[in-house]
Amino acid sequence: MNLKKRIAPTARSLMIALLLITGASGCADGFFATASTASATGLVVSLSVAGTPVIRAVDDQIRIRVNGIGVAIDTTVVAAPAQQTRVQLNVSNAVDGGVYQIVVEVRRDSVLQLRGNASAQIRSGQSTPVELALLPPPVATIAVSPPASSIVQGATVALTTTLRESSGALLSGRVVTWTSSAPAIATVSAAGVVTGVAPGGPVTITATSEGRSGTMQITVLQSPVASVTVSSPTTFVSVGGTLALTATLRESALSLLTGRLLSWTSSSPAIASVSAPGVVTGLAPGGPVTITAASE
Question: 52: which residues sit within 8 A by CB, 6+ positions away?
């Protein structure tokens, strides 16, 4: 039997109607094309999303792919307005009884949100129902930026993550947890902000989502010396006498620093010398002599 003789000219193209279930009711049909007639060859794909009644926002991109014998469709539409519930595509060259693969992806700001796929056997003059579940694709890889860094004690650095699924498409809206291999040296907050606690490292900071992890290395440096202040009970010393000086070191936030190397020098060592601990000895009358303490 010649199949073409049995099909009206208007039914020679395959009509695909994608019914997007959003939990809204009373919405108009015919978003991109007129509704298929009862005699037309068609495919009705009912979509559902696990855990949420709303599958898209007003500016989401819906990518629809249909592949099979004689048919290869790859199109992207904007789901606007958000309450629209039907997308229809006209498909030509479909084979009666052929099996076709349908893939739907929902993206927001180019980031993959949901994906679903199914297969359907198309029959001429029939409307073939298919249930297609849209689910968030699982996380395949996590990259942490920057991959390595160093901060001074007391400083912070904010880390970011890039999540991708197996095809390399970007993912968003996933829960990410953070851990530090040495919180006594560097801690990390739930938002991925690292704080240098004590000099040391490198410390491994790990971001984990859906069983996948990404890491970065961070080293905490001691806070640099910002100021040195020298104090003395008096500014005079007799010949042969001694005077102990005190040096106070502070970092940029004015916190006291300890344990730093300190060097002492005298502008006139023939008049007054100074030892490594900062003790001045009067050697001859004269002055004034400048005694300097330096660190870093």
Answer: none
